[in-house]
Amino acid sequence: MSPFSYHKPASVSEAINLAGPSTRFIAGGTNLLDLMKENVVRPQHLVDITGLALKAIEATATGGLRIGALVSNAELAWHPLIEQGYPLLSQAILAGASPQLRNMASTAGNLLQRTRCYYFYDTGTPCNKREPGSGCPARTGLNRIHAILGASDACVATHPSDMCVALAALEAVVHVQGRGGERQIAFADFHRLPGNAPERDNQLADDELITAVELPPPTFAAHCKYLKIRDRASYAFALVSVAAALQIEGGMIKDARLALGGVAHKPWRQPAAEQALQGQRPSQAVFTQAADALLQGARPLSQNAFKVALAHRAIIRALSEAALGTAHVGALP
Ligand SMILES: Cc1cc2nc3c(=O)[nH]c(=O)nc-3n(C[C@H](O)[C@H](O)[C@H](O)COP(=O)(O)OP(=O)(O)OC[C@H]3O[C@@H](n4cnc5c(N)ncnc54)[C@H](O)[C@@H]3O)c2cc1C
Question: What is the mean pLDDT of residues 283-306?
Fold first, then answer.
């Protein structure tokens, strides 16, 4: 690990004034410290934001919720307003990591966790995301866990978060603050596809701090399912995951949201997939059409063609379970 200075600001503005290209904010540290120990990232300055007043979950004037950037993944998953109004989010968070990690991990840190591509972590190999212009051995190498959608010649890494897949489906909004002021970023625009700049995972500027994530009013609580498929039943990242949310009235799908995890550089949505569900009666045939649309354009690599079939079946299963009614996490043993 390289040497670094340590600062613990008392306010958001103080934190932002300390920010810069060679500085990293540290929250739970569950991803950043691993990356520093492996020399994957080498910040010269660490700004510890754990003392900032960003730990509240509050109702918004429009009937949604504002989640402070430092709310822990555990607190968020088990919060009564989340369990009742946004069970999709609870399910997604509880499908990830371990209880100990979820106690430490923060909301903003989860959004900004880095890929689990083996080559990104291995400083003995090239990686365009770690060292721009050095190459991407995953394209022709070990790529079983990599992207099947939205990848580029420069990078085939996936975004590893479970929580972000649910936030994408729920159309959350990310609140950020920098030296130039505050702005809000729609979740769909927050993470990037790799293109020819895979070193950039998202749209945050170097001086910007995430202050909160806002959820719109809850409309999908009754019919939602987060389904995660992984190599081990716990403590493993998704090979494929699905966030499925339906609003069903009079036996018809009034509105629908679908997002995939483990398949792209960001949670993957496709308007045509959701349109295929809207106005339809839930059925295997309709769910199959949605799965076809969501996977449109999938381009597997040498070792991950199985992900296309796996994702197709997972989408249909998640939609089928969502249509039957939400299994609330609080009701689980
Ligand atoms: C063994 C293991 C298994 C895991 N399994 C899963 C899993 O199955 N599913 C899953 O989704 N995740 C999983 N995780 C990842 C875990 O969820 C993340 O490490 C965690 O959410 C990161 O949050 P943190 O607060 O610890 O972030 P940190 O490590 O503190 O920070 C991560 C990044 O976010 C930046 N940052 C933090 N807060 C802010 C802010 N407010 N504004 C701007 N930048 C900020 C930091 O600078 C850093 O770049 C796993 C992690 C481990 C170690």
Answer: 98
